Amino acid sequence: MVAASGEESKKRPLVFAYYVTGHGFGHATRVVEVARNLILAGHDVHVVTGAPDFVFTSEIQSPRVFLRKVLLDCGAVQADALTVDRLASLEKYSETAVVPRASILATEVEWLKSVKADFVVSDVVPVACRAAADAGIPSVCITNFSWDFIYAEYVMAAGNHHRSIVWQIAEDYSHCEFLIRLPGYCPMPAFRDIIDVPLVVRRLHKSRKEVRKELGIGEDVKVVILNFGGQPAGWKLKEEYLPTGWLCLVCGASEDQQLPPNFVKLAKDAYTPDLMAASDCMLGKIGYGTVSEALAYKLPFVFVRRDYFNEEPFLRNMLEYYQGGVEMIRRDLLTGHWRPYLERAMTLNPCYEGGINGGEVAARILQDTAYGKNYTLDKLSGPRRLRDAIVLGYQLQRVPGRDLCIPDWYANAESELGLRTGSPTAVTAENNSLTDSYPQDFEILHGDFLGLSDTLSFLKSLAGLDALVDSPTKTGKHTIRERKAAAGLFNWEEDIFVARAPGRLDVMGGIADYSGSLVLQMPIREACHVSVQKIHPSKQRLWKHALARQQDKGQGPTPVLQIVSYGAELSNRGPTFDMDLSDFLEGDEPITYEKARQYFARDPSQRWAAYVAGTVLVLMKELGIRFENSISLLVSSAVPEGKGVSSSASVEVASMSAIAASHGLNISPRELALLCQKVENHVVGAPCGVMDQMTSACGEANKLLAMVCQPAEVLGLVDIPGHIRVWGIDSGIRHSVGGADYGSVRIGAFMGREIIKSIASTLLSQFLSNNGSHPDDSEEGGSELLEAEASLDYLCNLSPHRYEAMYAKMLPDSLMGESFVEKYTDHRDPVTTIDKTRNYGVRAAARHPIYENFRVKAFKALLTSVTSDDQLTALGELLYQCHYSYSDCGLGSDGTNRLVQLVQEMQHSKASKSGEGTLYGAKITGGGSGGTVCVIGRNSLKSSEQIIEIQRRYKAATGYLPILFEGSSPGAGKFGYLKIRRRNPPKQN
């Protein structure tokens, strides 16, 4: 408790207004502990909350606590117990806190004055800080995360039109005095003054022995407490889920839910700390309350990953750092394969020894501050703090160079991951030269690693996997969990196949690929490596849960696909995936692509596996391959996700290449690229064109792949002249080809094609009925042109002058999906579906590929023209035109526009004009709506200096230091594959 002594005991009691977010019980339960200590010190506490009364009244019986039931923020809206609905969260917050903001502020200011509040505490309601400032009352936040951090990633996924929410929240927080920060915290740059306190944990009322006696549970019974705050939809608990002799205490069960005899339903107001302390382990989802109390009571925690819950990685890392956590795959949770996880939990020895009196410490700080003690440093201005926080309006990536305070245990994990501000290119290790860089640990039975430093690093990481057995702390650049999973993946007595596929920079062509355009694409230096081992099921080293699954089926060893993905932790993805290959079969035939999409959609934290495992299904369906053996697969990609440089295509191409090599399949690079496009279109469900996969498979270093996407005719490779250089600069805004903007523009283009065909058919009929003449078509051979346009297969086969002469004015700017379907029935795009309730842009979406095809042809021709400043100026102008055409389609973004503007400022600066110009043009790339900007300039030292200056200026304006993509590397076809075997294989258990 907060003891009042000496001079403080003579001071008057204080009135605290304590605001509680509407997100989860964890916030309310920690508020209880802080409020309890304030009340024990003689102060009044008014709690503003949407949580049930019993959460507070069960722990605080005092006339000094006052409950006011108001919900001023909604937190994160959950689609189910394990999945956050990002768009719904933003829309609900807007509805709850943005639209009625003025009335909320007026009401709260009036209320604070009416209760004569001395101090406002927020956990962690943004508007409370602003209301306190308006009322002239100091405020403090107590939390381990803030909503600007949580919502920023949602904005990236749900659309930039919500970005003002992030900025408003950061501005609200900037009004508070300081932050009282709890362990397991996320980056919170909106706060400049920070005080760290121990865990806030509710106290125990009863001993383990007393609780078990009340429940009639003997000490010899193993007890797991099930704590999900409500169970996953449609989930039915069964007796066989638990090992023999175990009992499960169920929190949050519905009143009418029938439970098996080895499951016990707890009352809704049950005091969970006592029950946790009486249990042997906990099974649930990660939140501050569950993690803090599990650590405090040294209770092993079997957790299931939540989707899009951005606080989770920080809490999870803390839980695992103190050896208190085991991750369960969601599929095993829902199908009842609990035994291996519970047994594993019983072997843990949680070792948290830190303080658990954070409630008392926080209450003392609040009391002292309210009495006038200065805990803060010289504060920076609110606008300065807001500017620093706007970094969260761009892509939040936990990389060095970001001015954020990260816990020691998390900073160490970042170092292990090898993150950096530059392009995550595989760099040759220090002190290594090509003369001593041969992979000595492996015998290369086939192929050549071509002196590629990233391939050498990958082979060295493979060789080091067995070191984890001897020294679990030596994990290299990957997380402990990833390395442990990978360490048990391969049988070192067997051959391993390695493939490599690069990402790509879209120099010209972009979103015109699906309309049949010529495209020019460059494979970048960053690449994905995949190692595969085909092995008899009896020799495969299965993970414990996969082995238990097979044993439960009562079968002998059957083929299993096991995948480890390095870097998964960065995107809050599960680092492992496994499935029985028989899951891809119905009888003797492969399942449909639709069923495959549903299969991977069941667990969004493992949806990434569709890009990898989907290659197996496509090979089964398209080539009739049957996989009789197990497959173990390790994915290590240096192609950053969400940057518009085809990270997904590189994973698909590398995975299929390695699997094909390991199974003796001879697939040409072009055919392999087309198969990989099917993975993305039909298994993943992203409506991409084929240029990404073609570049990753067929490209060559320092050349542009020229391809006509009708559907995929490679024209050849175009040399980049020595005096020209191309860069990629990442805007920091996450791009997704599966996003609604890209899909809607694609649909608009296909709508435009159908409308043009219909117009051409009408004009042709009129032409023929008028005996071959028509006033709107004076060109000789008009009937042939109209006939071709009436059956137009690709928009890009329509020339710009024909488009302007015949169709531009007749296309609508936009059209409702329902109206289009009524008149034209179908847009005839096999990978997108029209939403009848949505309004689609048509004219700009159709115009872009028609003109882009012309621009790409002109660009290709200019590359071979006479070297001159005019040549570079014309090439740059084509890039600029492409960029603004994207914007007309609605695929621009603040970040990419800013980068293009910075290039223009550099190009037209006095320094550039007075000397020899260096930068000439820039454009957004790929699917747009963020991602990377392609820049073209003169190949010179001055150009590189200007690119670095653009980096610097962009960071100064946004807080984000852009990744640079420089250089090129060979495609998967040129690399081929490596067949390797360990020279001195370690002994395996």
UniProtKB/TrEMBL annotation:
User: Superkingdom, according to UniProt?
Assistant: Eukaryota
| Molecular-function GO terms, alphabetical | ATP binding
Q: Does the UniProt entry include the keyword NAD?
A: no
Q: Which Gene3D superfamilies match?
A: 3.30.230.10, GHMP kinase, C-terminal domain (3.30.70.890), Glycogen Phosphorylase B (3.40.50.2000)
| GO terms for biological process, alphabetical | carbohydrate metabolic process
Q: Keywords for this entry?
A: ATP-binding, Nucleotide-binding
Q: A single Pfam family, by name?
A: GHMP_kinases_N
GHMP kinase N-terminal domain segment(s): 611-699
InterPro entries, A to Z: Galk_glycosyltransferase, GalKase_N, GHMP_kinase_C_sf, GHMP_kinase_L-arabinokinase, GHMP_kinase_N_dom, Ribosomal_Su5_D2-typ_SF, Ribsml_uS5_D2-typ_fold_subgr
Domain (Galactokinase N-terminal): residue spans on this chain: 493-534
> What name has this protein been given in UniProt?
L-arabinokinase
- Organism, by scientific name, is Anisodus tanguticus
